[in-house]
Design goal:
heterodimer, A: 0% strand, B: alpha+beta, Sulfite Oxidase, Chain A, domain 2, 8-stranded mixed β-sheet, 5-stranded mixed β-sheet
Chain lengths: 207, 322
């Protein structure tokens, strides 16, 4: 893909990631977030985080399907950082609209409520990934170590999905889709590695 | 030249509001149905029961048992933000799907420990006692709340007509269980029909309301038409909707949410800020229809009805009997 096309596409991705936030803020300002605006904002930011996280995790396996899609890698950091941005908005929603910045409430929640525990764990896992998302960090850490660290994104996504299941009432299956997609991605990694190792072997023999 | 002023339109020519609202609703539903052709026939055969019902006014009298000093939750929120899993699990689903419910003919059958089983027609029940307007706070177990002007009369008035035997210790209420009208029943894993129950003294408490309407009109389908309970000091799921059967029993009846998760939803389910739901806090709630920064408020013991109902539970450990 030509460089100019990638740049244009990046602008589009920025717009696609920021437009929902603009929509949310606008509707917040005019009080049009439905009967339960707190719940709307909570769900909106939480769902956004999970979707972006899963999308960023999808980049590598999709890219591996064919060399023609190699340029996709240039969007991974961006999607990951937007996932973290949404996670921060989600956390802010909790701190403000649920805990009202009351430390006792936060401590109570984080020690006693498993869905908050696992949700907060997901945010904590994403935090160092956001901090080490620069090229400088990759050089400093070394590619291999950086890669291992950034596999935590999978763990964060699992925590996020568990967080979702733990807050819905029994009988509600809304987290099913995102769970299935994540499961597919988790299975895709070893499956693609296996296929590519099979492909490589005959090539090695020729050499 | 004389220009004749047109005659004023006689009032008999003016379409009543309810009629044109009906037509609009009908056309809207028909248009929506046309998009999904599968249901078109069904909708045209049963033109929007919701709209017809919504136009029916109820004559209510004031009640000393009505809650004062609260701002009412807007009608639009009360009728579009519902938990009614027979019509879908999303809050907006029931208002979209409950048009499938046919509220006529409708009967409520009474059996179990009674002098003799009886069946009451809904129109008889509507006329049995004067309809009172009761404003109640409504607290959902999911930590949101509303203030709703219900219309109905004390359940005790109805129970007296049922002539329960002295051996009756509990009352069980069953909702309509008809996958034809409520297709979501097949998708949601709850024990159907939706079952709820009260101890006899709770059922006889004057605050326990047999409810037929809200905001001075008969209940919209999504709010549990044509007949439901409202127990203002308990979490909302106790206030069973679209009742078809009432059974007087001597043992604590099984209840739908208790079946689904006994550690999360107790039989009593009194509103209690001191007993957390296992997964979330019940100390505070979000008032529906308020601006986002004003939604959060403190939850009151027995939802603020402690003066009236606390005596029902003296000597009981409300942590154990949550």
């Amino acid at each position: 893909m030509p460089n100019r096309a990638v740049v244009a596409l990046k602008v589009l991705v920025h717009a696609a990631c920021l437009a929902p936030v603009a929509w949310l803020l606008y509707h917040l300002a005019i009080s049009q977030l439905g009967p339960d605006p707190t719940a709307t904002v909570t769900f909106f930011t939480g769902r956004g985080t999970l979707r972006l996280l899963v999308l960023s995790l999808a980049v590598t396996p999709v890219r591996k399907l064919t060399p023609k899609l190699a340029w996709l890698i240039r969007f991974r950091r961006m999607l990951g950082l937007y996932a973290f941005f949404y996670a921060c908005l989600h956390l802010m929603t909790y701190l403000w609209l649920y805990a009202n910045f009351d430390v006792a409430t936060m401590v109570d929640d984080i020690t006693r409520r498993r869905y908050i525990m696992v949700g907060f764990a997901a945010w904590l896992l994403l935090f160092p990934l956001a901090l080490t998302s620069t090229k400088w960090s990759i050089r400093k850490l070394g590619g291999k170590r950086w890669q291992i660290l950034h596999r935590l994104a999978y763990l964060a996504a699992i925590c996020g999905v568990v967080h979702y299941w733990w807050i819905v009432k029994p009988g509600v299956h809304t987290p099913f889709t995102i769970t299935a997609v994540l499961a597919l991605l988790l299975a895709a990694r070893p499956a693609l590695d296996y296929v590519s190792s099979r492909r490589r072997r005959p090539a090695m023999r020729e050499a | 030249m004389l220009i004749r002023k047109p005659d004023p339109i006689p009032s008999s020519e003016i379409t009543p509001k309810s009629a044109y609202l009906n037509r609009r609703q009908f056309m809207a539903t028909a248009a929506a149905a046309a998009a999904g052709a599968g249901v078109l026939g069904e909708r045209l055969l049963h033109p929007s029961a919701t709209a017809q019902a919504a136009a029916t006014k109820l004559n209510t009298v004031k009640s000393p048992l009505s809650t004062t000093g609260e701002t009412l939750t807007p009608y639009n929120d009360v009728t579009t933000y519902n938990n009614f899993y027979e019509f879908g699990t999303g809050k907006g689903d029931p208002s979209k799907n409950a048009w499938r419910l046919h509220t006529r003919p409708w009967t409520v059958s009474v059996d179990g420990l009674v002098k003799k089983p009886k069946t009451f027609d809904i129109d008889t029940l509507l006329k049995m006692r004067p309809m009172e307007e009761r404003v109640y706070r409504h607290r959902c177990v999911e930590a949101w709340s509303m203030v709703i002007p219900w219309a109905g009369y004390s359940l005790s008035e109805f129970i007296n007509q049922c002539e329960p035997l002295s051996s009756a210790k509990y009352v069980q209420f069953l909702s309509l269980d008809d996958p034809k009208q409520e297709p979501w029943i097949n998708e949601v894993s709850l024990t159907w029909p939706y079952s709820e129950g009260l101890r006899m003294d709770e059922a006889m408490h004057p605050l326990t309301l047999l409810t037929f309407g809200l905001y001075g009109e008969v209940l919209p389908n999504q709010d549990g038409a044509p007949i439901r309970l409202v127990i203002p000091w308990k979490y909302g799921f106790k206030s069973v909707k679209s009742i078809v059967k009432v059974r007087f029993v001597d043992k604590q009846p099984h209840t739908a949410w208790n079946d689904a998760a006994p550690n999360e939803y107790g039989f009593y389910s009194n509103v209690n800020p001191n007993v957390d739901h296992p997964r979330w806090s019940q100390k505070t709630e979000r008032r529906i229809g308020e601006p986002i920064w004003k939604q959060r408020r403190t939850t009151l013991m027995f939802n603020g009805y402690g003066d009236e109902v606390a005596k029902l539970y003296t000597g009981m450990d409300l942590r154990k009997n949550f």
